Amino acid sequence: MTSHRIHKTIAVYGFLGSGKTTVMMAFARALVAAGHRAALVVNEAGDVPVDGKLLSVAGLPVREIFGGCICCSVVGDFIETLRALEQDPELDYILIEPSGMADAPRLFASLEKHASENLLKLMVLDGPRLELLLKAAGNLIRGQLAAAEVILLNKVDAMNHRQLQQAQAVIQGLSVEAPIHEVSASSGLSASLVSGILK
Length: 199
Description:
The protein is α/β, with parallel strands linked by helices. Helices cover 41% and strands 19% of the residues. It is built from eight helices and seven strands. It has helices spanning 20-33, 50-55, 75-86, 104-114, 130-136, 138-147, 161-173, 191-198; strands spanning 8-13, 38-43, 62-65, 93-97, 119-126, 150-154, 180-182. Strands 3-2-4-1-5-6-7 form a seven-stranded parallel sheet, with helices on both faces. The longest helix has 14 residues, at 20-33. Residues 46-51 and 65-74 have low confidence and may be disordered.
């Protein structure tokens, strides 16, 4: 049975280079500052656990899963890891960073069926590259958008007003219902945004 001490499991996902790790670190630091205990689960598609090394500086335990994307070849290992963490009475939160190539609908269907009972799906979207990504990996990006419960439109510091309007129009044109927050994760996330998502 899943531990009821877990406040929330948050999946921070998005395409490669969208800024997922930076967002994860912002949440991790906020949790530490608030006195919460959390674990991070990072899916590494390659052999070098760069993201895990970065995240460990936040002072939280990091579980790394190697050898493929958690939505396919290693999903069983991921589910077992998540189940074990959710039953840890010392934990309040679990933060998940899937591979940037994750098939979001398939991944979250597996997680909700076999593991997490309280999962928030937070997508980090690369604002400046949005139209390019839709052309190069349209089905993947549309699936990620459709699965999102919260969207962080990232790197807005590199966009002008017209580009921001175009990005918002593109997202709305895909019938996305999730609330969209314009952020620049590398410059920091607002305390009110972080606390609102962590509630």
